[in-house]
Amino acid sequence: MKTLTSDRPLAMMSKQTRSSAACRPADSAARHAILQGVTMKPANVAEALVALETVAARLRERNDPRAVFPDVYAVITRRVKEAVVDGTDQRFLEPAWISRLAGIFCEYYLTALAASLDGRSTDVEAWDVAFQCSRADGTAAAVHALLGINAHINYDLALGLYRNIVQHGAAQDARLLSRYRHDHDLVNEILAAAMPEIFAILSERYGCPLARIATFTKDVQRTVSSVVLFMLKGWRDRVWSDLLSLLDTVETADAMAKRAVVVRMNQHAGKVARTFAAGNGALRVGAPFVRSAAVKLALAA
């Protein structure tokens, strides 16, 4: 198994996922067009933001649905940058640590995107499902966003946290871990503040009927936002639990125990992705009704 401190770890995928990914032809030209000049290993939140905005813009130019996730992800990254680099938020206890985490976190996404552009499996089931859905006509932008967010939080985030903490030599430092947890939880507030902007992007830039329905009135938007944020908070709480399980293996250097945690993370994220994908199939069947409802609501407004 590859070490978690450097390369993306080996993950378990279903035979169906592997087979589907293996059948995709490589497209090195597309990879070059999207990733040319992009920093694949951002060192901090500023570099991560540039990378995300660049790939999102280039994917949008090609009408590639894979643009949705980095577009949404860039909103959060920009707001984190404003807080920890531009100094608009003094509540973060370890701003430099958060900035470095944003760079590492983005690296995992860029690695997955590069594999997808090459027509390869990402070796992460949740990402493979997300990228497979990007090839399905009629998929709502909100679904693309949720699939990417699931893979990035439920799989990538614990690995990014682990790498960042180990690099800072804080795996056994209870005081620093407490400060890191504080900052990790504080990001939930940034997510909450970003929801209106994210809904606007999904609705106006991508014409997402689900987002339009979700923002029909302020009361509806508040309700939908609350549900989404409750889900994300639950995911992020689970991430910290996964992180602690990974850190428990540092002192003993137990590779098998570490692998077991990673496999469990992959299975959980994959299960969530398959659930979203199944729901997406139902949405595609009912797409005319969803679009009709969105139009009627817009006219009624």
Q: How would you explain this protein's 3D organization?
A:
By secondary structure, the chain is an all-alpha fold. Helix content is 74%, strand content 0%. The chain has helices spanning 15-22, 28-35, 45-61, 68-84, 95-117, 125-133, 141-167, 174-205, 209-214, 218-247, 255-285, 287-300. The longest helix has 32 residues, at 174-205. The termini are far apart.
The helix-and-strand class reads mainly alpha
Report the principal-axis shape: globular
Oligomer: single chain
Main beta-sheet strand count, sense and barrel state: none
What's the topology here?
Elements: H1 15-22, H2 28-35, H3 45-61, H4 68-84, H5 95-117, H6 125-133, H7 141-167, H8 174-205, H9 209-214, H10 218-247, H11 255-285, H12 287-300
Short structural summary:
This protein is mainly α. It has 12 helices and no strands.
Overview features:
single chain, 301 residues, mainly alpha, 0% strand, disordered N terminus
